[in-house]
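Batch manifest line 175
LIGAND: magnesium ion
JOB: complex structure
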Amino acid sequence: MAGEAPELSAQERAGKAFPVSWDQFHRDCRALTWRLNEVGPFHAVIAITRGGLVPAAIVARELGVRVIDTVCIASYDHNKQGDLQVLKGISEAAMKLGGGTGKGLLIVDDLVDTGKTGKLVREMLPDAHFATVYAKPMGRPLVDTFITEVSQDTWIFFPWDTALSYHPPLRDGAA
Ligand SMILES: O=P(O)(O)OC[C@H]1O[C@H](OP(=O)(O)OP(=O)(O)O)[C@H](O)[C@@H]1O
Ligand code: HPA
Ligand SMILES: [Mg+2]
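JOB STATUS: finished
ARTIFACT:
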């Protein structure tokens, strides 16, 4: 309708930016693995796609886990959260390894924000261990292990979603 304020995306509502480089992300994943190493061993890693694929590869490599499965969930379209859609569930083989409830399985995602995605996967695997690299306060109670907490009004920019670009000097009005 004319005159109505345009709806803000989750990223715009967040306000603060937290850009993460590949280097930083790799370091944070290794730090996460140090903590997980005290909790395991794990029979398999379940990556929540797509963001969970990158930390899952690093964590699985460090922990020596070779069985990796995915649960494919779509929610944010660019930066606005819609209804969650499970595009692919957990495989029968991974379910079997976790005794049907996820015991001994490690779920990995890049972050929890509102916690909606994590909640859905936890319902599928109630006894699994859930780890993320970053956590915002709303989603934090759902996670068993994470490395860095950022405020709810922060948007995390991952290296696979960003590229280096020119930034004008402050003097010329850059924010
Ligand atoms: O805690 P929530 O509010 O549910 O948000 C967290 C989820 O959102 C992002 O995934 P997204 O749905 O954007 O898909 P992607 O991993 O394919 O980028 C992120 O990778 C988490 O999986
Ligand atoms: O802060 C975020 N960054 C990137 N993707 C996301 N999906 C939910 N929250 C975020
Ligand atoms: Mg995701």
